[in-house]
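Dear Dr. L.,

I hope this message finds you well. Following up on our conversation about the binding site, I have prepared a predicted three-dimensional model of the protein together with iron/sulfur cluster. For your records, I am including the exact sequence and ligand specification that went into the calculation, followed by the structure tokens. Please feel free to forward this to your student if that is useful.
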Amino acid sequence: MQLAAIIVSLVLTVVGVALITRAVAQIYRFVRLGQPVPAGSRTDDPKARTITLVKEFLGHTRMNRWGIVGFAHWFVAIGFLTLPPTLLQAYGQLFQADWVLPVIGTFLPFEMYIEFIGLMTVVGIVALMVIRLLNLPSRAGRKSRFAGSKAWQAYFVEYIILTIGLAILVLRGLEGAIHHVESYDAAYFVSYPLVLAFKGLSLSTLQTLIYFTAMIKIGTSLIWMITVSLNTNMGVAWHRFLGFPNIWFKRNADGEVALGALQPMTTGGKEIDWEDPADDAVFGVSQVEQFSWKGILDFSTCTECGRCQSQCPAWNTGKPLSPKLLIMSLRDHAHAKAPYLLAGGGKDMEGNEKATEEQLKDVPAAALAEAERPLIGTAEENGVIDPDVLWSCTTCGACVEQCPVDIEHIDHIVDMRRYQVMIESAFPSEAGTMLKNLEKKGNPWGLAKKARVEWTKEVDFEVPIVGKDVEDLTEVDYLYWVGCAGALEDRAKKTTKAFAELLHIAGVKFAIMGGDEKCTGDSARRLGNEPLFQQLGQENVAMLNMAYGEDDDEPETKKPKSSKKIVATCPHCFNTIANEYPQLGGEYEVIHHTQLLQHLIDEGRLIPVTPVEGLITYHDPCYLGRHNKIYTPPREIIAKVPGLRNEEMHRHKERGFCCGAGGARMWMEERIGKRVNNERVDEALALNPDIVSTACPFCLVMLTDSVNGKKNDGQAKESIQVVDVSQLLLESVKTPADPAGEPEQVDAPEPEPAK
Ligand code: SF4
Ligand code: SF4
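The resulting structure of the complex is given below.
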């Protein structure tokens, strides 16, 4: 037995070590196939990055949001990292059954640690197996977060871990028996029952059992190593190694997820100069190797856990997009195409092959065939990513928020959109109208600029306009950035008027732009039209800087960011001005209207007194919540309004469910599956609320459309209202005796045809 155990273990070890060495080198070379990133963008502040990595790993910060799963996975991960000394011990036991590790082998804390982590690895993996079995796609179908994951790989890894964990405990029991542990001993506090079970066996039997069990432990570990080495796209196994660099190289050193701003477009690791783009500049991604190396590392790290998929509004409403399946497809494609790329293969801008026949002569046929697949294409075209997948994303950020290994889905999706829009002009045709309107009129509706200030005539107080009523913005506390929807869309205008009136009541000095401002460019950028975003953004930044009395040619006129305060009612405008305009030289202190309103209430400048009776549920706008972490102010405002009873929908805050408008989806038809806004409203209606509230003009429109449709179908009560929190606050701040006028009617806006 001993000889057989030694031979089997050593042969497997030689094969396993050789293959894993080759696989690590392969993955390193695959990842390097990606494009460079801007200098320092992934390596700045190494200390903060290291702290982030330690925190995320030791705290399992994402997974612990999933209750027992996070707890169970923590022990399995810690066991994987810290139990290798038991493997060394097993090698020694092959040659001498009662061998112990030198120095630490009989050190009590070490023995107790091995016992405890060995047990918890077994308990943890059993818990994870049970959870998987209870959530199998065969039971839950599309609702299962494992739908589409490679099941055999997950089972394989789970059974390997279980076998190794059990082998560790059995070996401990055999060690106790061979070392004549006679009574309950702290060093065997877990395995003592096994010690008792083996007690009484002859020495030679114990030795044989130790050789056998050590072989099982080593052999199982090596079979795992060989299998994962032969499957470099086996994310469920490789994430154990790749998760660490992927988290360390994440977009934000401080640990923030890759939400908020989109990244500037780069080519060859440098930002594109839009004034004079290089002749060989690559616009967006049309080949998998055009992603950055961090993109390829992202794809390779995916564990296939499906947390992203379970939160995705597109997937949950029957669309073909699952962020997990998208990442898996890119990973499998990248790995399958890698031999061709590593041989020097690739296409130039005209689609001609760059490599010679000689270079490609040893490339496997499968890799050559993979290289011919279009990155974006239908099933008939053998595409890697279907256009319907690409255009279903609302950029809601739920996937990025949940991913335990910090994969940056949105950036990859937008990079692919950029190529489709800028080079192929291939995007849903309905969005073309919006783009044309933005180009010609500076707003998505194509209305004249004077229409932007029409709403000011519908309020009974004066709304100061910069350049007309105030010379520049240094005279006021805040610029109120009304935004296109707030100025031009009838339902959103109610929010605008309510907020402006609240500012007026609170005595806040503010002004608005006079109509020359343009759309911030949020939709254009998320659709993939980066040049249009750049154009709109640069014009707005120049205008804003001028309105703050700055002259770009005179640096001494520059003002500190803190003195340039902007308040926005639209979370998309808020996000773009606060997080993206700094990329264009526009640095402002931007807050959302709910933050300012909460502040004014706290200061006693707005006092809600009139009860607004009813059950309310609040919908978190993605660009306010997940993208900018503003969850509390709207809820605080609701809490301050007497009479309102707030009840949360099941999916709220970090797990809030999109309304369907983000990522320029507002401007596209929704032809596949259930409408996202209907899914959200169904969730709200399950609470039987009197009021559905939100804090975003786009959410307001989407939710109102759905509620009105359901009223028409008799699925929603007529009295239900969809309003912005500012409308509720205004109703409560105004007392019935207020001589200034009638309380604002917060009834449902007039129905408009659903788009
Ligand atoms: S951003 Fe939202 S819609 Fe897009 S893939 Fe992620 S979860 Fe799905
Ligand atoms: S992308 Fe992240 S959340 Fe989604 S399956 Fe992969 S590891 Fe899990």
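In brief: Confidence is low (pLDDT under 50) at residues 738-755.

With kind regards,
A. P.
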